[in-house]
Design brief:
The structure holds 2 protein chains of 2 kinds. Chain A is an alpha+beta fold. Helix content of chain A is about 35%, strand content about 25%. Chain A has 4 domains: about 15-120, Rossmann fold (3-Layer(aba) Sandwich), CATH 3.40.50; about 150-215, Dna Ligase, domain 1, CATH 3.30.1490; about 225-465, D-amino Acid Aminotransferase, Chain A, domain 1 (2-Layer Sandwich), CATH 3.30.470.20; about 470-500, no CATH class. Chain A has 20 helices and 23 strands. Chain A is globular. Chain B is mainly beta. In chain B, the strands form 3 sheets. Chain B has an 8-stranded antiparallel beta barrel. Chain B has a 4-stranded antiparallel sheet with strand order 9-16-14-11. In chain B, strands 13-12-10-15 form a 4-stranded antiparallel sheet, with no helix packed on it. In chain B, β6 and β7 (about 65-70) form a beta hairpin. Classes of the chains: A alpha+beta, B mainly beta. Chains A and B meet through β17, α14, α18 and α19 of A and β1, β2, β3, β4 and β5 of B.
C-alpha cells in the first residue's frame, strides 16, 4: 500500500533531502516503520535502546544502535540530553521523535535545535502552544475554530466550581497539562463538582506536576474525529482528510479508521477546513493532527492538536497513498508540502486495530507474559506494524500496545470483513491480548452501521463480553492442550500398555 | 485414565478411553476419535476429530498451553492432583498484585483497621493506577511493600487478620 506520489527511481535534485543519518528517539514498531522510509530515501538510521531492549527488533533493523542508560527503560527514553549526545556521537543530522516519549516535549525540540541538529517536527514554540490545553484552546478560539464552552482554572476551587456550574451539566473536568484520560472526570450534578475538581487537580499534580484543571461542556455520545494536517512552517497547510477514533477504552483509542463512517460531506469539509485554518494560523511545520469531538447534533469542538506523527497515521497513508514519514522529513528539509490541497484524493477505507497486551474481560487490565508463538496474517492490503519476536518478554516497562493491524478495503464493509479475517488469523500466543475482543467490536452491528461514540465499548459491553465456547471448540482446545502435555502423550502413545492403566496422576 | 485440564479457569476431564487402533478420548462425557498427523509442536496445526479436520494454533510454555481455535485464544493447563489436594484456603486474607507494577502510595500502616472496600495501597502498572482494597473488614497484619517498590503479578502486597485477632495480638 505504500506508494509514493513521486516514487521515481531517482529523487529529483530539488527534492533531495540534506540528511544523511537520522536518529530515531523511540522504540518498538514506530522505529521499524520510520526505518523503512529512511531506507527508501537512502538515509542511514540510528536506534536507541535501554539494556532491557538488547537485541530488540527495532535495534536490529536500524543501521546503528546506541545504548542509553537509565534507572528504568522509560527514564532512559525520556533522557533528552543523553539522546542528543548519542545523535551527535553517531554523526546524525536530525532526530525523529516518533510518538510519545519526547515527541511533544518543547524543551527537547529546542535542545535538539541548539545542538545544531534538525528536529523532525515543529519548533519548540509551537509545541509549547499546542501542548498546553488551555493555550491551545485559546489559540483555536481566537482563530474562529469552534471550542466547547468552558471555565478556565483559578487558584480558588470553589470559585471555579461556581463558574463551571453556570455552563450546565454534564461537565467534563480536565487537567490543563493532561492527556490519556488522566485527571479527567465527568460531573453530572452541582453537588459533585467541588470534589471532582479537587480530585482532578490532585491527579493532575501527581501525573503532570501541574495541578491546573478546567471544565468544559460535556458532549453526550461524542465522536472523536481528527484531521491529519501538513504544514510547511510558512503559513501554508493542507489536510489529508479525517480519521475516526471513537472506539476507546480507558480514554484511549483501540480502533481507528479513515474516512469516518457516514460523515456528511458538508460537515466533513467544515471539520477539515477548521483544522487547516488552525495549522495555517500557527505557521505549523510538520505532520500534525487536530482532534475534535463531534456531537450527535453536528456541532464539533476543538479538543487538542498533536504536533507529531500519530499512532494511527497508517490509515491515512492507505487512503491517500502518501508516506507521512517521508513527508515529515521533506518538510523538515524545507521542501514544503508534497501536494496542493486539490491534488489530494482519498480512496477506499482503512481500519487500524491496536493489539494490546491486556484482558478485556477484566476491565482491560494490562497483561504480561512471553510471546511463545507469533503468527501474522499476510496480504497486499494488510500492514502489521510491529516489532515483535517470538520469545520476547512482554513486561510492564512500556505501554501495553504490542502492534497495529492496519487493513485496507475498497469499501468500509470490505475493510471490516478483511480486518475480522486478519484478526482471526493473527496469533500472538503467550500473553493475553485484546485480539479476539477487537474482532467482536468490528463484527458488532452497531460498529458496522457506523453508530460510533466514545462510550461504544461501555454501551455494548454485554454483547462484547466473551461468550462460552461451543462444545466443538472447547473439545478441540482440550484435545490440543492435552496432546501437548508430556504426561498425557506418554500415556496415550509412549508407555507400554500395562503401565498406562496405572498412571502416576491417579490419586 | 482421566486428566484434569483447566481452560480459562474451568476444569474439564479428558479421559483416554482407547489407544488402538485410534486414540479415543472422552471429554465431559463426549467421546472423540482422534487422528494425528504427527508430533504436536508449536504453531498452526490440524488434527482430525471424529473424521473432521480441526485447525488450531498452539504454543506450549511449561505446564501452560495457549491455543487459538475459531478466532479465539484459550489458556489451558493440566492440573496436578497433588497441588489440587492442598486446597486454597485463606484467600480472603491476602491482597495480591493483580498485575506487575509499582507502588504509588501506601494508605495504611500495620495495625490499622480497614473496612471492606477501603484502599490499602495504590499501584501503577503501564500508566494505569489501581487501588488495591480490603476484601473484608479487618486489621492490617503485614505490609510487604513500600512506596516506589515494584512487584510481579500475584506477589503478596498485604495480609489482613480479623479484628478479633488484632485485639489478641495487642494484649
Amino acid at each position: 500500500m505504500m506508494k509514493h506520489v513521486a516514487a521515481d527511481e531517482t529523487v529529483p535534485q530539488d527534492r533531495a533531502v540534506p540528511f544523511r543519518k537520522i536518529l530515531i528517539a523511540n522504540r518498538g514498531e514506530i522505529v521499524c516503520r520510520i526505518v523503512r522510509t529512511l531506507r527508501e530515501l537512502g538515509i542511514a538510521s540510528v536506534a536507541i535502546h535501554h539494556r532491557v531492549e538488547d537485541g530488540a527488533k527495532h535495534v536490529r533493523m536500524a543501521d546503528e544502535a546506541i545504548e542509553i542508560l537509565g534507572d528504568t527503560p522509560v527514564a532512559a527514553h525520556l533522557d533528552g540530553k543523553q539522546i542528543i549526545a548519542a545523535a551527535l556521537s553517531a554523526g546524525a543530522d536530525a532526530i525523529h521523535p516518533g510518538y510519545g516519549f519526547l515527541s511533544e516535549n518543547a524543551d527537547f525540540a529546542q535542545a535538539v535545535a541548539d545542538a545544531g541538529l534538525t528536529f523532525i517536527g515543529p519548533d519548540a514554540q509551537t509545541i509549547r502552544l499546542m501542548g498546553d490545553k488551555i493555550s491551545a484552546r485559546n489559540f483555536a478560539d481566537a482563530q474562529g475554530v469552534p471550542v466547547a464552552p468552558s471555565v478556565m482554572p483559578t487558584g480558588d476551587i470553589d470559585a471555579f466550581a461556581a463558574a463551571a456550574s453556570k455552563i450546565g451539566f454534564p461537565l467534563l473536568i480536565k487537567a490543563a497539562a493532561g492527556g490519556g484520560g488522566k485527571g479527567m472526570s465527568i460531573v453530572r450534578s452541582p453537588s459533585e463538582l467541588s470534589e471532582a475538581a479537587r480530585i482532578a487537580a490532585s491527579e493532575a499534580r501527581r501525573y503532570f506536576g501541574d495541578g491546573r484543571v478546567y471544565a468544559e461542556l460535556y458532549v453526550e455520545r461524542p465522536r472523536h474525529i481528527e484531521v491529519q494536517v501538513l504544514g510547511d512552517g510558512n503559513g501554508n497547510a493542507i489536510h489529508l482528510f479525517e480519521r475516526e477514533c471513537s472506539v476507546q477504552r480507558r480514554f484511549q483509542k483501540i480502533v481507528e479508521e479513515a474516512p469516518a463512517a457516514n460523515l456528511p460531506a458538508a460537515l466533513r469539509e467544515q471539520i477539515c477546513s477548521a483544522a487547516v485554518q488552525l495549522a495555517a494560523a500557527a505557521n505549523y511545520r510538520n505532520a500534525g493532527t487536530v482532534e475534535f469531538i463531534l456531537g450527535a447534533d453536528g456541532r464539533f469542538f476543538f479538543l487538542e492538536m498533536n504536533t507529531r506523527l500519530q499512532v494511527e497515521h497508517p490509515v491515512t497513508e492507505m487512503i491517500t497513498d502518501l508516506d507521512l514519514v517521508r513527508t515529515q522529513i521533506e518538510i523538515a528539509a524545507g521542501h514544503g508540502l508534497p501536494l496542493a490541497q486539490n491534488e489530494i484524493a482519498g480512496h477506499g477505507h482503512a481500519i487500524e486495530c491496536r493489539i494490546c497486551a491486556e484482558d478485556p474481560e477484566r476491565d482491560f487490565i494490562p497483561e504480561t507474559g512471553t510471546i511463545h508463538y507469533l503468527g501474522v496474517p499476510e496480504a497486499p492490503f494488510i500492514r502489521f506494524e510491529n516489532a515483535l519476536d517470538a520469545g520476547q518478554k512482554i513486561s510492564a516497562d512500556f505501554d501495553p500496545m504490542l502492534a497495529k493491524l492496519v487493513v485496507y478495503g475498497a469499501t468500509r464493509d470490505e475493510a471490516i470483513d478483511r480486518s475480522i479475517a486478519a484478526l482471526g488469523e493473527l496469533a500472538v500466543l503467550g500473553v493475553r491480548t485484546n485480539t479476539d475482543y477487537l474482532a467482536k467490536v468490528l463484527g458488532h452491528p452497531a460498529f458496522r452501521a457506523g453508530h460510533l461514540h466514545t462510550g461504544f465499548v461501555n454501551e455494548h459491553r454485554t454483547d462484547l463480553a466473551a461468550a462460552e465456547p461451543d462444545t466443538a471448540t472447547l473439545d478441540t482446545v482440550l484435545i490440543a492442550a492435552a496432546l501437548g502435555f508430556r504426561e498425557f502423550r506418554d500415556l496415550a502413545f509412549g508407555v507400554p500398555e500395562p503401565h498406562a492403566t496405572i498412571g502416576h496422576w491417579r490419586n | 485414565m482421566a486428566f484434569k485440564v483447566m481452560v480459562d479457569g474451568r476444569a474439564h476431564e479428558v479421559e483416554i478411553v482407547r489407544r488402538r487402533p485410534h486414540l479415543v478420548v472422552r471429554i465431559d462425557g463426549r467421546e472423540h476419535e482422534i487422528s494425528l498427523p504427527g508430533d504436536i509442536g508449536d504453531g498452526r496445526q490440524t488434527i482430525e476429530i471424529a473424521g473432521l479436520p480441526m485447525h488450531f494454533t498452539r504454543a506450549q510454555s511449561g505446564d501452560r498451553a495457549f491455543i487459538r481455535v475459531a478466532g479465539r485464544t484459550f489458556e489451558a493447563g493440566i492440573v496436578d492432583p497433588r497441588a489440587e489436594a492442598e486446597g486454597s484456603g485463606g484467600g480472603h486474607d491476602h491482597i495480591k498484585a493483580p498485575m506487575p507494577g509499582a507502588v504509588v502510595s501506601v494508605h495504611k500502616a500495620v495495625g490499622d483497621s480497614v473496612a471492606r472496600g477501603e484502599t490499602i495501597v495504590t499501584i501503577e502498572s503501564m500508566k494505569l493506577q489501581t487501588a488495591l482494597v480490603a476484601p473484608r473488614d479487618g486489621v492490617i497484619a503485614e505490609l510487604y511493600c513500600k512506596e516506589g517498590e515494584s512487584f510481579e503479578k500475584d506477589e503478596m502486597i498485604a495480609r489482613l487478620q480479623s479484628t478479633a485477632e488484632g485485639v489478641r495480638d495487642d494484649a
